[in-house]
Amino acid sequence: MSTQLAKIPVVVSYGLGVDSTAVLVGFYQRGIRPDAILFSDTGSEKEETYDYLVTINAWLRKVGFPQVTVVRNSPRKFKYNRYSTLEGNCISNRTLPSLAFGRKSCSLKWKGAILDKAVDQMFGRGTAVYRAIGYDCSPADNKRFAHAQGKTNAGRSGDVFMYPLQTWGWHRIECAKQIAAAGLPVPPKSSCFFCPAMKAQEVAELPAEKLRRIVIMEANASPNNRTIKGLWRGKSMTDFIRAKGLLPAAEIDALWAKWSAPERVIKVAEIASEDVVRAEANAEALIAEVLAMAA
Question: Are residues 101 and 224 both part of a single domain?
Answer without folding.
Answer: no
